[in-house]
Design a protein that fits this description.
This protein is an alpha+beta fold and 116 residues long. It has three helices and three strands.
């Protein structure tokens, strides 16, 4: 076996192992995060903004609102569906060191059966 080939492969495997460990740590942090309930003032602001878009927004604005808030829709019967909403959450945990150079990602909490 070529010693150079083995050395290159070892470097690749070490890099991959490092990436996988970092991803594992990131996923572990994500599992530990529990969504928090927004304060009432924030909920009021969101409600007012949604109401304004629904009542006075253009068709494109209403479509964008629905796309932003609905994660997916489950059809439970021929005449019944259940939307699953996503609500943006801010994270209170500091980002792992390898992510600090990147902007924080938006986190979502799922809320089932908001209306039935």
């Amino acid at each position: 076996m070529d010693e150079e080939l083995v050395a290159d492969r070892l470097i690749q495997l070490r890099d991959k192992t490092k990436q996988l460990r970092l991803r594992r740590d990131e996923l572990t942090l994500t599992l530990d995060d529990q969504p928090t309930t927004p304060n009432p003032a924030t909920l009021d602001q969101i409600t007012n903004h949604i109401t304004t878009i629904i009542n006075t927004g253009s068709a494109n604005q209403r479509k964008a609102l629905i796309e932003a808030l609905v994660d997916h829709v489950t059809i439970t019967a021929p005449d019944r569906l259940t939307p699953v909403f996503r609500i943006p959450q801010t994270t209170t945990r500091p980002q792992p060191p390898y992510q600090k150079k990147h902007p924080p990602k938006e986190r979502f909490a799922h809320r089932l059966h908001w209306w039935s």
